[in-house]
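Problem: given the chain below (122 residues), write out its structure.
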Amino acid sequence: MEKKIYITEEEQKKCRKVADAFAELEDVDIVVVDAGRYGFVKLQYYTPPTGFENDFTFTDSRELFEDLWEEWLHTQIIVLAKEMGIDDIDYDDFFKRLPEEKQNELRGRKQYFAKAAGIEIV
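Solution.
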């Protein structure tokens, strides 16, 4: 029986760089693992004894990058909202209400992650 490959070796290397660039997300229960010929899997929301609640598979490094970027940004927004005593937030609305300097700081991190991951931001 022939084993089907779902991700090219080149994309696998690119996805590894993206996963490594966002390794700090492991602190918020997001882990990206190399699933070999199947691609990379983002595991999210770990609770014992059942394990991870969500899993998403990626075979494209750009899609993985954009997904992890959104996760990182939302994590930062949640932290800021908690610091401000806000419990229920709409991510986009909250981001727009941040001072321009803070918005630019957060947006600038996308460039940082892109460089670390070897991804070009268009």
